Fold:
Amino acid sequence: MESLFLTRVLDALRSGGEEVLFVQDGAETGYGQAFELLRRLYAGLPEGGVVAIDAGNRPETVLLQIAAQLRGSTVLLVAASASSPDRLAAVGMAGVTTLVAENPEDWPAGDARVTTFGELVDRDGTDPAGLPGSVTVVFPSGGTTGTPKLIRHSGIYDGMAHIFAPDPAGPGRTLLIAPMTHMTGNATVLGAILRRESVVLLRGFDAGAVLDAIAEHRITTLSLTPARLAAVLDHPAMTSCDVSSVRGLSLGAAPLSPRRLAQALDVFGPVVGQGYGLTEAPMIASISAAELDGRPERLESVGRIVPGMEARIDDGEVLVRGLSMMDGYHGVEPIGDGWLRTGDLGRFDREGYLYLLDRANDVIVTGEHGTKVHSTVVENALARHPLVRSAAVFGVPGDDGELVHAVVVPAASGALSADEVRAHVREFFGREHFVPSDVDFAEALPLTAIGKVDKRALRAPFWAGRRRHIA
Structure:
C-alpha cells in the first residue's frame, strides 16, 4: 500500500500549476516549478539509505526531504540549533549515506557523503517510480552532546495527510519562521502543501521582518515561540501594523507567561492558540482563544489533551501515549503503546486542563527556538577550561522565557572573567543558546547532605515568589 502522505503531496505539487507555493526574498515559486525541482532532486539521489539534510529555510530543503522519501530513504534532519559536536554525532549514529549541506565547509573536508543542492539539481528530472508504503524522518534530540538521542517518526506524516485539507474559505498564506529541520517548521511547511497554500519563507527571525511580512503578504497563519512573540509584541511597528489578516497564531515550544498570552489575545484577537508537545510527541495538549474567554485562570494552562492522545500524572510527572507518538529512539525497541515520561511536572484541574509546574530534570528551555539545553552538558564544557575548578548551571527566569545561568568556582580569585567563560562555551558548542547569559563566581558550590551540588539552593533566589518554576 502506497504512503498516503506522499500520494497527497505529489497530487498537490502536480496539480497546483502556477499557483504560488513559496515566496522568498521577493521571488515566487509555483507548485509546478516546485514539482520540476523535486524531479531533479529525485534524479540526483540514490535509492534507499539515510539522507541527512543540513540546510536553512528554502524551497529545496523540504523538496529534498520529499524526494528522499520517494526514493525510500530515511531522512535525518540536522537541527539548526544543534551544537557542532551533536551534529557530527547524529550523522554518525544514524548511518548517513548521503549528506546534503547548504554550507559543505561546515563538515569535515573530504567526506565523500557530502554534496550540495547545486550538484543534485544539475541534471534532468525523473518522475518517481512508484511510492514506498511509508516514510521515516529522524530528528536529533536537543541539548545533549556526544550521544544525542535520535527520534524516529513515521506515522505522524500519514496523520498529517488525514488532518490537513484545503480550507473552504480559500487558500491561506503561511509565514514560516521556525527552521524546516525542526519538528514545528517541518510540520508547518508540509501542512501548507497538503492544504494547497502559499508559504512565505523567512531565513531567520527578525521581529520587524515578521510584521512586514504579515502586512505585505496578508499572512493568515503563523507560529511563534514565546521569546519571538515577545519580540514581536514589543517591536515599535506593532502598534501600526495591520494584523487583521491573521486567522491563526499558534504559540508553543516553551512555557508562555500568562501576561504575554493575554497581550497576544488583545493584539491579534481571538485567533491565538497555545500548544504543548515534545519532539517525541508533537501534539499533546492545546487550548484555543475561545477556551480562554472569560477564564483568566486558564492563561496558565497548556490546554486539554488532544484527541488520540492520553496523559496521566505519575509522582507529579506528566506521562503521555497515543497517535502523535514517535516510533521510538534509534537503537531502542519501538515504544508502541507504552507511556513516555515527558520530564515535565504538572497537574490537571477538574475540567481536564493541564498546568505545567516545573521540570523533573535539569533541563533549560531557552533561546528563540525554545531549545532544550541540559545543564550537565554545559557544566561539562565549562569543566574543560583549565581555570575552572567546578561549575553549576541552571535555568533562571528572564523577561520572556528561561535563561542559562552559571556559577563558576575559578582556580584562583580573579583568574577568569564572565566574558571569558561565555567565550569558552560559545567556541565549544558553536551555538549561542548554550552560552550563559550571566556568570557568577563563588569560592565553593553548596552541597547537599549526600555531597551533591545543591542546585535547588542556587536556583531558589531567582524563582522566589513565583507560582511555577518554569518560565
